[in-house]
Amino acid sequence: MKFTLSWLKEHLDTEADVQTIADMLTRIGLEVEAIEDKSKQLAAFTVARVISAEKHPNADKLKLCMVDTGRETVQVVCGASNAHAGMKGVFAPPGTFIPGTGITLKVAPIRGVESRGMLCSERELELSQEHEGIIELAPDAKVGAPAAEALGLIDPVIDVALTPNRGDCTGVHGIARDLAATGLGKLRNDAIAKVAGKFKSPIGVSLDFASGKEPACPMFAGRLVRGVKNGPSPPWLQQRLKAIGLRPISALVDVTNLMSYDRGRPLHVFDAKKLKGNIHARMAKKGEMLHALDGRVYELDPEMCVIADDAAVRGIGGVMGGEGTGCTETTTDVFIECALFDPVRIASTGQKLGIVSDARYRFERGVDPEFVLPGMELATKLILEFCGGEASEIVVAGAPPNWNRTISFPPKMVKRLGGLEMPSAETASILKRLGFGVEGSDPMRVSPPSWRGHVEREADLVEEVVRIYGIDKVPSAAMTRPSAVARPVLTTAQRRVRVVRRTLATRGFNETISFTFVPRAHAVLFGGGDEARQLENPISAELDAMRPNLLPSLIAAVARNQARGNAYLMLFETGAQFASGMPEAQTNVAAGIRAGVAPRHWMKRQIQTDVFAAKADALTALEAARGQGFSAPPVAGAAPWYHPGRSGTLSLGPQTILAYFGELHPKIIAAFDLKGPVAGFEIFLDAIPEAKTRDGKGRAALELSDLPAVERDFAFVVDAGVTAEQIVKAARSVDRALIEQISVFDVYEGKGVPEGKKSLAISVRMQPRNRTLTDAEIEDMTRKIVAAVIKATGGTLRS
User: Fold this and answer.
1) Which helix (H) or strand (E) holds 425?
2) Rounded to whole angstroms, how far apart are CA atoms 799 and 796?
């Protein structure tokens, strides 16, 4: 919400400067985002007169201008077609920073001719996007005077960020009313005089909604003004609109913009001669279309409120009017619409159609239901003043909804909820200054005004009192601590997510943060895409389904990066995925993706993108999340989106799956048009049990032996279907206390090994604890290991 300082002071009688006003606005909850003072930003720019504008000797499209700056006459090379002798424009001397281009001027030759400054366009001064020509000032502009003064930009602009509940402050009058309640000034609450109707309106209005339902438009008022002459609005109004970033269009349209920003009351004006019959507020019919004022064509549905005449739809109620009945310079008769609309329906309609308009901004926050007729009177007065003509009587359909309510408010609630100890009289005074009706003392009976529809309960009243009295006056209070040592702030689940993120980052992964929504086609590939997980109101057409898995989000990111030439990627994300549309079906997962082939390295090391890399990633992250090692063997195979022969599952028993890992299924790679190998993993964080420690107090003591370890290598010829895990498990079973480690270091199939067989070699490390092993004991252990493996696998010891 933007407005100028002088505009505010038309409603608020105050001597406060702009900074004082801004500080007070922020203090009472109307946060000031920026103060824009063009007079300071454009201090280096001055008014200059073009003495002559001749053709550049070395360029057809350039002009060589002699410019009187008020101090001297300088030579300027200009490319604007409208530069001509006698005009007055905005001059920037060398050394001036041009905000619209981001450059600082300097004396420089242009096509062989020196230029000592610049004549500026509106875009170069960031006044608008107009850059076809340079700014041409009024003939009476004083040469050498500040350009901001000649442009009427000496008035600071205040930009306020409004919360969604403050619809009353979408107009300057409402902001002035809040400031007056603080004592910063006095509200100039000029009464709005009625404009007498000279004739009956030939255009009627009606509300055509199904009975028994809450109408989308509870009240509609209209009025015909005939004999108007539509032209430019007064200079003061044009300047006011330009200052807040609006483009003046015509007197009739500018009046509606002024009403929106001055009073928070959107209106619409129709060219009455383009209407057919009467005006109706009704729901749209399926398939109806509207060519709107923004130049776009919108398809409407039966959930949208429209304004129509007897022939067709003429506007989207509370959002935007139609181009076919818009006012132009030839308009002579105008029909003014001033209506109330349901805020929820307005928000839904605007979101569906993707329209963000000033009218929608105000209606979805709630406008004053009692200001329909006063708003009509004020708009009529301005149109008659600017355009002439005569007005009809007002035609009205419906009535304001019943907004009156009384809240029982014990004054002690200010202390209990707001932490402020203050007299009841002061509480009542603040509420009255804000326009609330107050009766009684304890409890008070408080009646909110019509423009504060969001105030419904005691807590809302406490908020009003505290923000006006001063939230900075709320005393600080130390929080009590039940023990000397602070309790952990993070839960186990939160700590687990942190450590997994940190662990994956140290392995070279880059973290991504994605929407929890994916295209339905992607969801189907990962077990989703059902109706229960479809979004009724998606943020975009592409993100219409709740993701059943984190991998689609990561794979889509990989595809976007590969399309831009990033060949090798390591991405991960921690977040939610949804097994159904129910709240309890949401689970927390950490997932990662490796895609492409790692770049070549001078040390000839190259990380492979395969099932083993994904297994290492999954195991490392899983062990970090558990806080201890993971000894359960992986099981071949994983979810359907993984390659069936190059994937695995990490689990604690058949029911507790902790992670999937592996290379992605070819159909997934094809669906996303990925290049190169792709491997990934998923860790189900919610399924990980708490780490077990001895006595529940700490880790087991580290046991190191100073006795020499013994290592022996074995190679077994076994059937090709025998897994390495079977051999390792059999060997370890011989003596779990003595055998410290078993590792697989070679797998061979080919010459020297029978067909259908393979050679698999393991290294066994035996670590004695009490005494050094003798040769006989070592030989005995060797025979037992060979016998155990042969018995378990049916293989033979390879000679």
Assistant:
1) helix 424-433
2) 9
- State how far the Cα of 453 lies from the Cα of 365, in Å rounded to an integer: 10
pLDDT bracket for residue 540 (50, 70, 90): confident
Comparing CA positions, the residue from 674, 755, 347, 287 lying closest to residue 537 is 347
Query: Residue 695 pLDDT > 60, yes or no?
Result: no
Cα 647-653-654 angle, rounded to 5 deg: 65
Work out the number of other CB atoms within 10 angstroms of the CB of residue 342: 21
Residues 382 and 251 sit within 8 Å (Cβ to Cβ): no
Name the band, by pLDDT with cuts 50, 70 and 90, for residue 471.
confident
In tens, the pLDDT along 544-577 reads 999 999 999 999 999 999 999 888 899 999 999 9
For residue 270, the model assigns a pLDDT of 95
Strands 757-766 and 739-748: antiparallel
Burial letters for 35-49: b for 16+ Cβ neighbours within 10 Å, e otherwise?
Answer: ebbbeeebeebbbbb
Q: How confident is the model at residue 705 (pLDDT cuts 50, 70, 90)?
A: confident
Task: Name, in order, each residue with C-beta under 8 angstroms of 695's C-beta and a sequence gap of 6 or more.
Answer: none
Buried b (16+ CB within 10 A) or exposed e, 159-171: bbebeebbbbbbb
Rounded Cα gap, residues 56 and 44, in angstroms: 27
Q: Which of 587, 571, 567 lies closest to 579 in space, CA to CA?
A: 587
Give, as one character, the DSSP assignment of residue 694. B
Integer CA distances (angstroms), 40 to 102, 108, 153, 157, in order? 17, 26, 10, 12
The dihedrals phi and psi of 241, each to the nearest 5 degrees, come to: -70, -40
3-class secondary-structure state, position 614:
helix
Collapsing DSSP states into helix, strand and coil, what is residue 231? Answer: coil
d(C-alpha 710, C-alpha 715), whole Å? 17
List, for residues 344-394, the tens digit of each pLDDT value. 999 999 999 999 999 999 999 999 999 999 999 999 999 999 999 999 999
